[in-house]
Please model this.
Amino acid sequence: MLRFLLLVAIGASVCRGRTASFSGLYGGTGGDEFSQTNFEIVGPITAMKIWTGILTLHGIQVRYGNAWSSVNGAAWGTLVQMDLEPGESVVQVQGSYSYWVVTSLTFTTSLGRTFLFGNQSGGTFLALPPAPGSVLRAVSGRAGSYLYAIGFHWGAPPAKGAPCSA
Model:
């Protein structure tokens, strides 16, 4: 069943007085919940590693500033890395999923670059920030042997040269 974009205000202001929001979860119900929102205060998203298989995404790891999160899901299959330029942010995410697992993710950046992970199959989604100027700040979802579901936390970019503070 195709899920629609769901935006839920989560109340806490993360940077420069703007309210953060969440879109997702896209995918299935397997695995264990994870959240990387605690990394938001370290800095902006600067890179991602995603492990892919023929039909599924296995795991994700995100670099916030200079600090890598733990791997959520499994670190097996083909590793693909996306590195962002200084000041570049993710402004849109498209993806696909079967009834139980995420099959593809395509990240579009503020510089117009796109990064595709996996192979599109199943239902699709489009996740956008709720307000102009908002960017991807963190990811959360469900993972185990695969990346079962993923959601996106949007908010204001950190001030240049400084991480966000809670």
